[in-house]
Amino acid sequence: MRIVETGYQKEKTEFFGSKFCIGNGYYGYRGTLEEYTKDQLVACTLSEIFDDSGNGWREPVNVPNGLKCTLLCDGEELSVLTKEPVEHEQALDLKGGFHERRSVFVSKSGKRIEIKTERFASLKDLHLLVMKYAVIVDEKAELVWKSHFDCDIWDINGPHFYEQKQGEIHGIDVVASTTIQNKKKAAVGQFAVIREGEGKLLRENGEITVTSVLEKGKTLEIVKYVSVCKETDCVLPEVAAADICLDASEKGYQYWREEQEKLWKERYEHLGIEIIGDEEAQLAVYYSCYLLLCSAPFHTDTVAIPARGLSGQVYKGAMFWDTEIYMLPMFAFCEPEVARNLMNYRVKNLAGALKKAAEYDYQGAFFPWESQENGEDGCTHYNLTDIFTGRKMRTYFRDKQIHISADVVYGLWKYMMITGDYSLLFEGGAETILECARFFYSYSYYKKGKHRYEFLDVTGADEYHERINNDAYTNYMIDLSLKTALHVIEYLKKENPAYFEELLKKIDFPDAEQIIGEMAVELYLPQPNADGVIEQFDGYFKEEDLTIEELYSRIIKPNEYLGSPTGLAVHTQILKQADVVLLLSLLGDQFSSEIKEKNWKYYEPRTEHGSSLSTCIYALLAAQIGMTDWAYKYLMRAGRIDLDGDYKLYLGDLYIGGTHPAANGGTWMVTVQGFGGLTPLEEGVSIIPHLPEKWTQLSYCFYYGTGRYRVSITSEKITLEPLEGEHILKVTTETGTYTCKPTEKLEILRGDTK
Amino acid sequence: MRIVETGYQKEKTEFFGSKFCIGNGYYGYRGTLEEYTKDQLVACTLSEIFDDSGNGWREPVNVPNGLKCTLLCDGEELSVLTKEPVEHEQALDLKGGFHERRSVFVSKSGKRIEIKTERFASLKDLHLLVMKYAVIVDEKAELVWKSHFDCDIWDINGPHFYEQKQGEIHGIDVVASTTIQNKKKAAVGQFAVIREGEGKLLRENGEITVTSVLEKGKTLEIVKYVSVCKETDCVLPEVAAADICLDASEKGYQYWREEQEKLWKERYEHLGIEIIGDEEAQLAVYYSCYLLLCSAPFHTDTVAIPARGLSGQVYKGAMFWDTEIYMLPMFAFCEPEVARNLMNYRVKNLAGALKKAAEYDYQGAFFPWESQENGEDGCTHYNLTDIFTGRKMRTYFRDKQIHISADVVYGLWKYMMITGDYSLLFEGGAETILECARFFYSYSYYKKGKHRYEFLDVTGADEYHERINNDAYTNYMIDLSLKTALHVIEYLKKENPAYFEELLKKIDFPDAEQIIGEMAVELYLPQPNADGVIEQFDGYFKEEDLTIEELYSRIIKPNEYLGSPTGLAVHTQILKQADVVLLLSLLGDQFSSEIKEKNWKYYEPRTEHGSSLSTCIYALLAAQIGMTDWAYKYLMRAGRIDLDGDYKLYLGDLYIGGTHPAANGGTWMVTVQGFGGLTPLEEGVSIIPHLPEKWTQLSYCFYYGTGRYRVSITSEKITLEPLEGEHILKVTTETGTYTCKPTEKLEILRGDTK
């Protein structure tokens, strides 16, 4: 599957940088062209290394660009920045995460020069970035190709390196950079070879020059190996960078390319998605999964997935609640090792969450809103700028979105439910869950006259309404996290009472069970009103009820932030994103289809989708209740967001461009959990599909417990094929509950239920 | 005592309109000149009649101006609006509330014409407004004086009359106006006579013309009687308006003037303030009391005193918490009948407070933030405009300043304590107090881990910080109101158990005593920290700590509102006004002098005094703890506010000019309760004075119970002289507790305590 854009579209430089990005979880590399510089937002963004330069926010660092190169033909530079190409194409071949570029220039002297490049972020060696650069001429021409580290780095809040040392190690050019805040070191190495064609390669002062007098119809092909090394996994990053370039060039381009295809193929097989009858949807889903996998930490549990993946530094490279709610499901079902890393990232950073709670005079664990590599909150109290006054605005993302701790517990619970891996509980998971419950107890207030616990002054999923009371999403998610804590207590008491005793002592929480139990019973859960609608928060229905068009008509300045403290949506019923609808899709077993539909229909026209976390959830719930037309419409908005670039680029004056992992993960959720109807249960799964009309068949694969399965759904039947493991799976469908044995394909006729 | 301004100061037109205003509680008349129109903010503002024209806020109405007149000399108009006077003086003689004006013009032909006017708002007949207009010429001149109703009324949110009918009744010109919203009628009558000098008076179509050929050195003196009648007390306002003019003219100018002086003299005698050694302070105090008395409802309990008195329509003519906290003390001690009216106004409007609480889903009585004549809240949810965007801002004055209900209870408690009049309890007072307690219960939340009731999401006295938790002022005032409720319960159970039973049944609050009792025990009262400072609200100490100058340096637009939602002070420690310091001065018996001083010194440099309610409280507490230099400095700021015009004229684009009754009442408080040390106790009073150095003697009068007393304080002794009644008064001073018998002067030597 290929994503292609034809013709040079200068105005889409920023967008294509995200759309065509590549990455391997260790780093991301934006989909920029080889001649680009910081002005075109070139970035090789690292995971795991963050820096606060003192010029703004703490954010992930970008390293020097090792792919920068220019081509001269008969002394004339061939660059889209200075010359319009006569043909141009940029593409992404999902098969191996190959970024492709093809440009044809006509030189002043009328020669036709074709440039073809291919690059990929190696999965085989995560430090490796490989590029092939080919030139073909229609007349003999003198070519000069130059490449060097571009150390003039694009940063949002940089520069982040207090020094950049360039030198040579083992005959390889290396630049070693050291961050300002924590003196973390990253190194980039470069090495080039001529793979085809006659030419002379010269290395001097870090610059590689290839000169060639190329005959008509001949190809000059250069391969450039760039290594990216960090001290997080390399003792001496600069030495490692050199060694990796040497190793890479020894194995050669073909080796790395084949390995790349093989490893991506494995990933795609784990997804196993096949949509018969709808190639467009198939592409959107695969592209979404591709983007998400590009940023996934297969190699570490010290970071999760940033809100813009590794497509740049936006949102401080921080991990939000999206990880648990939007991304975890795909990984838990298809790449459980990554899911474990993601959850371990939270568990290992419990200390930061305890510290944050204490900072606000609460007890227990209050997870960061914008979590970085150290488990501290990258979110500031002044997170936005008022575009009317230029003043920083006090925002409450950091201190009031307490649902984050419930989301983490939800993630742990989902992870355990799907993988059957309870070992995390004994490695900090149980402690995390209990500390989250303790946090909620300390945050709660008891309303005496009404005999209930309430959660006041919070911000829910919909960020346009800050500091509200009894947010439905928040309260229900807290309820789930309390119940999870009680399950865990029960589990530990049964499985390892000594450990449980020890734990309670360690965290000094002897009355945990009693306190959590009482609160779980008396927690206020807003119920549907007479119209079946759950009020998003106390007083929401009293806010101004208007159309989104009417709201837009009040905008007086472009990019106005619509949320708190004074945005246009604040005192209206307009939502930024799915909120009650999110709740109903996550905790689906607690609500009837009728309630789900009523809420969907109430909130949908009031949702502005000002967050990329929104459309996929509208699709998901619609799919789950069989509103397949609506679901399909929203699936395509979610699944195509990074293909079409139909998202907000600015909040006030804050640039928020990049890819959208939550929407990417959400797209998988809609496909598999929505249309495909896959839901994990305490024991086994349920598969209650609702396929869009044109999908004649949907297949997908998933892990559950120790088994792996392929599901195929048509209007007639559901076929469940065990692929791995000895697991005996209980499956509930529209027609009953079945057992799938390890070696037998199970076919379930669907009857009239479609 | 006279207030004088010499020379015509055009730029002070607005300010002098307030500074020189007159009034009698029935109406107020701004200190404008006779030739002025709406452009110079002429206003005759009524109490008791409010209107919402649909053009903005509900506000008191202004009636047509009956004093408008112009003078022509030899055909040339003599008006400060068109001609610079060669001499000019505007004055207020406090003796009788006489507004005086003297202007000398030199005509084109070189003649010197002197105009002298005097006007007053009659206390004898509250409907009456009387003016004397005299002209003297230095050469024979032809004069034409014209006067008519100026029906082109200055309104902030008007016009408020859907019709204005002009006509003649009993030979008197009358204009009858009917409001838009409630069809309330008010009428103004006019009648003029020549009192001195030769002239011809002609009445035609509502215009009165006096023509005179005046000889050199002679005086032409015209008296104009204007009547103001409302349907609140006149069955047919237009007929009453005519009758009053007739009656007035029959009795004649001298009669009304003498009565006026006599009645003001009585009022001043009730105050009895004499400051020997400081005429400036004496003047400031008397002027403050004058202004407050001008707006006081001696005649009715259907309104209290608006936040800008009767000096115009600002702040919607609404009654705020200032009434109880800042104004009531002077009335309770000096005009107890007015104090009863003020408290009755609240008690009678309990229904409005119950309704407001229900509107926000609370129980009990939530008194209006901006109370108008009907007990409904004139305050809107969008009370200010953002001057950067022109958009209305959601403000929380209305819904979060819950301390208003505690302030009302405080007022009732003070009133009863000072007057000994508990009869109000049986006329709605007890019900009001219990319903306020019920409101607080329903608003409170219980913090389980901390075993305490808290008050969340409130706004305290300092309005720059909205929506905060556990505001010290609020919590302590609620504590007082709960304890008052318990006292009242105890009192009723003892004095009239049947009534108490009945009352609980009527208001369906059988467990009142238990609920209020429990809450009073467990209510959270923020305690002084290690430095002895009480934190204004949860988290206040964490806010940015900067100087006021630094704050001001951040202002980018004149009249920026500094408060919520996004004003510059919001996330700083800068206060609008005395808050904790107010608490410490109101509930002084609960705190040591040391704590008071420490808090005063902490908060004083952080207080911007952006409210006229601030400086007097800083003066009061400073005086009470003997910081007399500071107290004096702040007394003069409070006492001279309306003399000097040193106050904010705008909040954003909202005009807030006028007189400042709270500061006026506060000035009395500082003088008598601060320097004079008078404090009401459960039984008797304490008098612990701290005189400023230059005050060699301070005297004042007060009622207590059924007695009236004069106190004189020197550095050597306190003399207490009973003036009225059979009361035996217990008096506590620095040196001990004494008994003052009805007929004996009590002299207490002060010892070394100064």
From TrEMBL, chains A, B:
Q: Where is the Glycoside hydrolase family 65 C-terminal domain?
A: 683-732
Spell out the molecular function terms from Gene Ontology: carbohydrate binding; glycosyltransferase activity; hydrolase activity, hydrolyzing O-glycosyl compounds
The protein depicted here goes by the name Glycoside hydrolase family 65 protein
Q: Where is the active site?
A: 463 (proton donor)
Presence of the UniProt keyword ATP-binding in the record? no
- Binding of substrate, residues: 321-322, 576-577
Q: Which family does it belong to?
A: Belongs to the glycosyl hydrolase 65 family.
Q: What is the lineage of its organism?
A: Bacteria, Bacillati, Bacillota, Clostridia, Lachnospirales
InterPro entries assigned to the protein according to its UniProt record, in alphabetical order: 6-hairpin_glycosidase_sf, 6hp_glycosidase-like_sf, Gal_mutarotase_sf_dom, GH65_N, Glyco_hydro_65_C, Glyco_hydro_65_M, Glyco_hydro_65_N, Malt_Pase/Glycosyl_Hdrlase
Where is the Glycoside hydrolase family 65 N-terminal domain positioned along the sequence?
4-229
Which UniProt keywords are present, listed alphabetically? Glycosyltransferase, Hydrolase, Transferase
* Pfam families, per the entry: Glyco_hydro_65C, Glyco_hydro_65m, Glyco_hydro_65N
Q: Where does the record place the Glycoside hydrolase family 65 central catalytic domain?
A: 290-669
One of the GO BP terms on file: carbohydrate metabolic process
